[in-house]
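Handout, section B. The chain below has 268 residues.
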Amino acid sequence: MFTRYFFVVLLSITALLNAGCSASRHRTAEQEGWVSLFNGKNLDNWIVKIQHHETGDNFARTFRAEDGIIKIRYDGYDHFNERYGHLYYKTPLSHYHLKFEYRFLPQSDWRKDAPEYTIENSGIMYHSQDPRTMPKEQDWPISIEMQLLAGLSDGNPRTTGNMCSPGTHIVYQGKLDTRHCINSTSKTYLPEQWVKGELIVHGDSLITHIIEGDTVMQYSKPQIGGPVVNRYAPDQKIDGKPLTSGYIALQSEGQPIDFRNIYLKVLK
């Protein structure tokens, strides 16, 4: 009886200490100028846009807030039907530092009627067009993507924190680079483990991708141009226009993924 009582008390103390540490970290972040973009309870301050659906229609609860996590799930889908989705923070941004953690679910949970390239694949879109300017059938937002990937069952290296460019281009290693995706120098991270990512954006100047504290990619001068975005409103795609600001969005491509601890610091 005493052993059981002692164990219960120990668990209670541990829970209180963990809660205290979490609250302390939150206060410290606020004091250093960081703002939490996710309140841990609901998707207030976020805007959903899913292909084939109007802006604001969170079809089948694709995006949901549970257990202090933003979860992307497909258990309400009969067919994926190219329902590429994005969850946008409500405010456009220009100069900022974004921190977040993500975790992929196992490959077996992937929507098998989604394209094969979407296995263990998601991303953070930034400098994105306003979701309210996207027609119902547009697939990707005109934006730059910090692509997030997890290792596959084949055991081959697979970098994360890559750059992809739907309807855009960047300057990489001093030259305009029109490739759709460019791999980073990151390690491979497996599904089910939390990975820390950071995105540092200085308008249309220097952009930095960081994974687990390591700088894995840098580039500059994001601008509108190129393919891999379809059925957009023509007035939104002005090729050559510098992308100096825009919206941040979490991506759904058919693979379940979790996001948490999403913090933003506006840079001067």
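Note. The helical segments are 2-31. Compare this with the example in section A.
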